[in-house]
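To fix ideas, we give here one paired sequence and structure record:
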Amino acid sequence: MQIRGKNILVIGGAGFIGSFVVAELLKEGAGKVIIYDNFARGKHENIAESLKDERCTIFPLGGEVRDTDVLDEAMKGVDYVFHLAAMWLLHCKDFPRTAFDVNIAGTFNVLEACVRNNIKKLIYSSSASVYGDAVEVPMSEEHPFNNKNFYGATKIAGEAMCTAYNDRYGLSVIGLRYMNVYGPGQDQHAVYSGVVPIMLNKIDANESPTINGDGSQAYDFIYVEDVAKSNVAALKSDTKFGYYNVGTGVQTTIKTLCDTILKLKSSALKVNYKPYSADDARALVKNRIGSTQKAESEIGFKYQYGLEEGLMRLIEWRKKAGIGK
């Protein structure tokens, strides 16, 4: 599909991943990029550079996916929609009812508004959390849904509704199952921060980074700019419906991740290991690496940044932002 000259709504466009999607769409020549965000997790600084472009605006009436009339108004005159707004994994664990309202009912509202406004294609941000712990490595898109947590459950529900709307109304939907995303713009200090900023914060404070368990648990880490490019690739592709892994296909243990960060930071700190709590151990996903084959062949997405290069870009961003050393 053609991006140049088209009007595009990015729901959650001021967030960590959403802000990178906005920037990529502007590079691709979009006619207008409208950011729809309630700024609960999104930040104005994430989109400050994009807003210098006159084609980029913040929807003035608000950006809450629970406000159906406002959401409907935001889609008027829009060609394509990206839906990235969601409560994150640990938020969902602590606030499951709100997680339902935002991630499940909110996604239903987005789908409903897309049909009413004849949206040509919706790109839905799903998650590798739908898979739970891997029974095969790498995980193909046919991997069973073994998820056990609230966040993954909301994403499974979102995908199921996308499938139903495609079948019932012919809405073109691509769902992207992100692996472990890291990079600039990710909240570096929140209680719910990811493993990468937590490690970097410890090292910058000259404190030993802590690893839960023995560090053998392994994941697929992908740089945020690559994730944004996967969204653009999904929109541009001729594929009208499907679900795709967004990752590198590279298996990285938490111990290797920590050792790599220590090396890049030229730090002599030693790693501190501690056992998981009973609650964390029960919910732990120990192994999750996605196959990249389907995304490469059907939507033309292949990652660009390896782990070391992505981490270095994050470290440099932290320095410029006055966060790290």
Remarks:
- The longest strand covers residues 121-127.
- The domain at 7-179+223-247+290-303 is CATH 3.40.50.720 (Rossmann fold).
